[in-house]
Amino acid sequence: MGTESDGRTRTSGIGTAGVAVTLAGVFVNGLAYVVPVLGARHLPPAELSALATLLALGAIGGVASTGLQIAVAVHRARHGRAPTGRPTVLTVVVTTVLLALVLPVAAGQLRLGGRSVLLLGVLTVAVVAAGRWLGELQGDQRFLRLAGGMALLAAGRYGGMIAGLALGGGLTGSLLAGAVTSLLVLALLVRLNRGAGIDPVAPALATRTVLTASGATLAMLVVSYADLLLARRFLPPDASGTYAVGTVLTKGALWAPQVVTVIALPRLARGDRRTLLVSLALVGGAGAALVLAAALAGGLAFGLAGGREYTDQGRYAPLFAATGALYALVFVLINARVAASARWPSAPLWVSTVCFVVAVAVAVPHTVGGVAGAALVTAGLTVLVTGASTLRPRRSPSTSDRPAGTTTGPVRDTLGAVDR
User: Fold this and answer.
1) Transmembrane residues, as ranges (predicted)?
2) CA–CA separation, 292 vs 295, rounded Å?
3) Around Cβ 285, how many Cβ atoms within 10 Å?
4) Out of 59, 243, 303, 379, which could bridge 231 as a Cys pair, Cβ 3.0 to 4.6 Å?
């Protein structure tokens, strides 16, 4: 009876955590969507274009935040409450230096205001630093607090900008509000992470792990956006507009099951093969359902994504949804490779990107269907290559093979950390 009760408690805890993280993800994406929509209503065309460009630059800079969060979560799950301060400071410093070098150049080339670029840099650095605290919550499997942290960071990152736009602050005012609220959120995240002490004898997080996770995150971002950029380059304006609407479906299928990877990552860090297989099954099932829905109601899907004028392009919907569903599987596999400390986990993604770019440039028909079909084939091949390298049998490591700080005895009941 005790075992059944414990099982029900754990399942209930994971289910509650999953719902919380899912709702937090919806909140994050919803606020990110509101910013350009509100900008279109409160900014002149030139400032709206600048806002969209700055948001894109911020998304690229935010890769370091996601990489830091993944690295901290994996290390925390594997080694307990180990020190993570030094690589966090180094990540923030390196990000700051890179932004200081790149943003002025971008400001000149993309005709962006100096104050706007500076405020974007402050906002991005705050978001990067927040990755540490989110990673610690994720690695400790305190998923309810993690959901709260995700919502807080989104409120700081996007909520401030939304308030600035709504109050008529213009481009600079909205960025100033976003920068201030993002910095304030950092203090709240530290408080949210209270009780997570440091074990001074645990091995510290290596900077190389952060770089590996950040590189994998960047590769995932590049390979999943490559088709959109190439469509902009090679397709005529009307067709590239249709393609841009289709990629909304791709991103939806890619990020919809993200909660599975968030919750599975701490267990993947301990080499739990069953968790990996279950995660792939759940993500694959969600992807299959989305592809089926796109096949049955493609016109509706395109209409919801881009407006009524795009409903007659619904025949392309299954292509875009399938591409996103396949990349969702790649996302799980890449996270598993990072969690397993694999060397060069992002290599298949970079190879896929290069092959896709070359194929579109020299061989693929420059039509919506041609580019979308090539993207689908690329995603499928990437799944096969990444899956083969991730799922191949491995020998059981001896005690001497295990990372320092791991235990050869029973793993602690980390499900008990799901915010009981």
Assistant:
1) 12-36, 48-68, 89-110, 116-134, 146-167, 173-190, 210-231, 243-265, 277-304, 316-335, 347-364, 370-391
2) 5
3) 12
4) 243
Q: Within 10 A of 326 (CB to CB), how many other CB atoms are there? A: 26
Question: Across residues 361-373, what is the average pLDDT?
Answer: 91
Q: What angle do CA 203, 205, 210 make, to 5 degrees?
A: 160
Q: Which region holds residue 410: left if phi is over 0, alpha if psi is between -120 and 50, else beta?
A: beta
Per-residue pLDDT tens digits for 66-79: 889 998 888 888 88
Look at residue 352 in the predicted model and tell me its pLDDT: 92
Arithmetic mean of pLDDT over the chain = 82
367, amino acid identity: T
**What are the DSSP calls for 265-284, one per residue?**
HHHHTTT-HHHHHHHHHHHH
Per-residue pLDDT at 40 exceeds 50: yes
Instruction: Dump the DSSP string for 55-104.
Output: HHHHHHHTHHHHHHHHHHHHHHHHHSS---HHHHHHHHHHHHHHHHHHHH
User: 3-state SS of the chain: helix, strand, coil percent to 5?
Assistant: 80, 0, 20
Ordered by start, the domain boundaries in the chain are: 2-205, 213-396
C-alpha span between 31 and 135 (Å, rounded): 21
| 179: nearest Cα among 131, 114, 129, 126 | 126
pTM of the model: 0.77
Dihedral of alpha carbons 308, 312, 315, 319, sign = negative
Q: Tell me the per-residue pLDDT of 16-26, one tens digit each, with 9 for 90 and over.
A: 777 888 888 88
Distance CA 210, CA 218 (A): 12
pLDDT digits (tens, 9 = 90+) for 110-148: 777 888 889 999 999 999 999 988 998 888 888 888 888
Percent of all residues in the chain with a pLDDT value above 70, rounded to a whole number: 88
Whether residue 115 contacts residue 172, with contact meaning beta carbons closer than 8 Å, is answered with yes
